[in-house]
Write a structure and sequence with these properties.
The protein is mainly alpha-helical. It contains four helices and two strands, in the order H-H-E-H-H-E. Strands 1-2 form a two-stranded antiparallel ribbon. The protein is globular.
């Protein structure tokens, strides 16, 4: 079921969403101070490629208290808009019965897009 879900996800917009996150990551990686943000957008883009069978959990690596100010800056400079986009598509997909599994993946992505620092994506595909 994971493979079929991921293939359907790619066909109906997941691949375009991942390419958008990777493009933003490339643009941020050009600057030196944008590298931490680029790593987070790569993480979200990878989750956009493989949402079925992947889980989001708190990171076990100790990044310390720096994750709080980085999440606040992320929220101000684009994280809120990415979260609202995923919430909108999640609600839109949950209107139909067939779209509920895909809508729940958008809700998980909304949480990751809101505060990505201090979280990790575990791929079980």
């Amino acid at each position: 079921m994971k493979i079929i879900g991921n293939i359907i996800w790619w066909i109906f917009g997941g691949l375009e969403s991942a390419v958008g996150y990777f493009t933003g990551s490339l643009a941020m990686a050009i600057t030196i101070i944008g590298i931490p943000v680029a790593l987070q957008t790569i993480k979200i883009g990878m989750y956009c490629l493989w949402p079925f069978g992947s889980t989001i959990r708190k990171s076990e690596s100790s990044i310390g208290c720096i994750s709080i100010p980085l999440n606040i800056l992320w929220l101000i400079f684009g994280g809120l808009w990415a979260c609202l986009m995923h919430l909108f598509f999640g609600i839109l997909l949950c209107i139909t019965i067939i779209g509920i599994p895909f809508g729940t993946r958008h809700f998980k992505m909304a949480g990751l897009a809101l505060m990505p620092f201090g979280k990790e994506v575990v791929f079980n595909v």
